[in-house]
Amino acid sequence: MFSVGFRAGFITVSRQNDVITLLVTGEVMPVDVDLAIEIGHELGIYRGCRSVLIDLRRFVGVVDWGVVRRMGRYAPWVHGSGTKLAYLLREEGLALMAVTACHYPRAHHNAFRDEGAARAWLREEAPLPRNLAA
Fold first, then answer.
1. Is residue 131 situated within a structural domain?
2. Assigned domain for 134 exists
3. Which one is predicted more confidently, 11 or 90?
């Protein structure tokens, strides 16, 4: 686990078993998010992982959509069809998940307010695509 940023805003990246957790606190600078994603890649934290918990309940500020797009450079999990992204959000955060899902349409996205429910969803088997020819 490691954090990048300052007291007013930082991102913490961790991995427990097969779940990557990104905890975004305060008003995080875009350069800190870029650096955290890059460091996680260099440390191999993302390798073989397809479940991501993104906790935005304590995030304050404006989303830099360039950072969201650039995540794919170092975080291969955002492109996979079997990848699951669980977002912990406050009430007003639903639009954030919807826009992020547009950037990474092959992944499964779901929003939660309860961390236990989010983790339970991440542990579930991803639904298989339906065979429409059958």
1. no
2. no
3. 11
Residue 40: phi and psi, rounded to 5, are -60, -40
Host H or E run for residue 99: helix 94-103
> 3-state secondary structure string, 65-90?
HHHHHHHHHHCHHHCCCCCEEEEECC
Matching residue, tokens 């650039």: 70
Q: Which domain holds residue 9?
A: 2-123
pLDDT surpasses 50 at 61: yes
Query: Residue written as tokens 């991803």?
Result: 126
Q: Is the pLDDT of residue 127 over 70?
A: no
Q: Do the Cβ atoms of 45 and 17 come closer than 8 Å?
A: no
CA-wise closest residue to 106 among 131, 78, 128: 78
How far is 35 from 6, CA to CA, in rounded Å?
A: 13
pTM: 0.86
| Structural domain contains residue 133 | no
CATH of residue 94's domain is 3.30.750.24
* Number of domains comprising the chain: 1
Q: Which residue has the tokens 């305060």?
A: 26
